[in-house]
Specification:
The chain is α+β, with helices and mostly antiparallel strands. It has three helices and four strands, in the order βαββαβα. A two-stranded antiparallel sheet has the order 1-4. The longest helix has 19 residues.
Length: 90
């Protein structure tokens, strides 16, 4: 799976199922929402986007966004910028 997994805060009931199935210790973090309810967010620094939490969440509180196009766009502009800087007259 490519992309980024995230929590839909209003749907999360803090049932902890996502933490139980997650193969990465630090990929989930507990926090309190503005209305002081316990929630579980994805820590994208550690998440490997395996999708296990999306499958197990009964509340549809986990979803995924495909950022491949964003990555390719940034990558192409990076290559173009490097090419332009290398061909600039000195
Ligand atoms: S499994 Fe879903 S509802 Fe349960 S804590 Fe995780 S994100 Fe929230
Ligand atoms: S996608 Fe996988 S690694 Fe990321 S939080 Fe969910 S279960 Fe953990």
């Amino acid at each position: 799976m490519q992309g980024r997994v995230f929590t839909i805060e209003k749907e999360c009931t803090a049932c902890n199922k996502c933490i139980e199935v997650c193969p990465v210790d630090m990929a989930n973090r507990v926090y309190k929402s503005l209305d002081r309810k316990r929630k579980i967010a994805v820590n994208s620094k550690y998440c490997i986007s395996c999708g296990a939490c999306i499958k197990i969440c009964d509340h549809n509180a986990r979803d995924y966004t495909d950022d491949t196009e964003d990555f390719l766009w940034i990558w192409q502009w990076g290559i173009l910028s490097i090419s332009l800087s290398l061909h600039r007259p000195r």
